[in-house]
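Structure request: Esterase, Granulicella arctica.
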Amino acid sequence: MHPRSALTLALALTTALSLPAQRIEVTIPATAPLNGHLILVITKKTDSEPRMQLEETYESAQGFGVDVENLSPNQPIVIDTKTIGYPRPTLSDIEPGDYTAQVVFNVYEPFHLASGKTLWLPPDKGEGQHWNLKPGNPYNAPVKLHIDPKSTTTLKLKLDKVIPPIEGTDADPAVMAAKDPGAKWLKFIRFKSEKLSKFWGRDMYLGAWVLLPDGFDEHPNAHYPLVVYQDHFHAAFGASAPFFSTPPNPADTGHKLQREKAGYQLFQDWTSGRTPRVILLYVQNANPYYDDSYDVDSANVGPYGSAINEELIPEIEHRFRGIGQGWARATFGGSTGGWEALATQIFYPDMYNGTWASCPDPVDFHAYQNINLYDDTNAFVRKGDFGEIPVAADRKPDGSIIATSQGEFRYEYVLGTHGRSTEQWNIWQAVFSPVGPDGYPKEALNSLTGVIDKDTVAYWHDHYDLNAILKRDWTTLGPKLEGKIHLAVGDGDTYFLNNAVHLLQSTLEDTRNPHSDATFQYGPGMPHCYTGGPAEYTMEQNNRTWAQRVLPQMTDHMLKTAPIGADTQSWRY
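Returned structure:
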């Protein structure tokens, strides 16, 4: 560098550091040192509280995040021009103006793991790992602020409210089960897992919604197949397969009305004999990293695969007269649940007799959404000799890009460092990665630079790349998976998840001894959550009847493959 250029740069930096800069101070009434993560949200929209407006797309409100470790009570937490933000990088990038602001402090607790490590993490408190709804988190009512990054004024906020508990309210699953007229069929169980409790160093529970077949009480000698429905955390029974024993409320509209219609239609089909008589199980498995565990054993998230399949399911089948044999079990789910449904069938090939997976999370890390973890060097940009282009992350069905991978990783960093955002990219990292040197999940890619760690990716490949595992282990897995794999995805999937499904299909089409008979259905131009179905119906109509469509396919396959002497009659009354 020319000496004059160096002097010019030094003067510019000195001037920038000496410029006045606004800061925001947040205090939290407390009697003990604070540990957690503070999230400040500012917005110009007034249709909802700011804490509900932070999202991964370009339409997000502005957020800033600050780690807090052993902070003395009432000592201010500072947001200034050095604080990392999203979508704008820093407070300096905010235009002067009037905003509505709100702050939430996500409280962390110590987890003394069986490994000997102590980690500070946000426990799930029945809300499904939502920092802006978590019981016990301090927050403030929305306030008006005039923000001017060049001002020397210090803005002060105080968190004088606390999010109330869920237990005992209408949001509590136990209360829901007691009040629901459908309680005759629908049961809720809170199940303590010894395996998870040992791993996490504290009592850990799984929630289990059990939908019993019609006639369960009237046929005490019947035993039933078990179907596991995979989904994100929901306080009530399922999302794509809700169960409502009361007709829709005519005053409701939009998504709420459609959900009520779907739930009531399933109730009518379930109690009229139009669906096969099976036990339908939905498992709540929120954990300190996300609203879902991905139902596999993981170095960071714990032995959820073992807990669900070796502890919970045997208990459910014992308590509710399940047949309790591999030929009489199947699983289905979409998105996160789609990955879980496929992974469950692959990792427990003898325990399940079929998987129906739709829009699954990445099943091949050559297509980690729109990132090629094996061949790309950076997850945020692709470079040519003279230019570069950002890597897209979310899109509309018409191809319009609404989020980039760089923006989404920064969004999650604002919500929590060390993989503690409780959002999508961080849970994949927590599930798929080995433990890092600090005890938290080892990064597969840097959240702020996008640089990919190939050693960590190699671990992912060997342990959780489903396509790679099928290719590697086909000699032993192939014969156990015949007739069992069924996938559907929209070719306009919002998160580019169709790309990995196509790679999986190519692999399975090339298999021999046996040649895979897996089925694939693609929805031209269809977005995320496409579940397949007859082309004469809309995606929404097919999604509403997904359970009714796949349950007969499951039981037909069970009957065709049942071993000699199996109970194929007691449940078919």
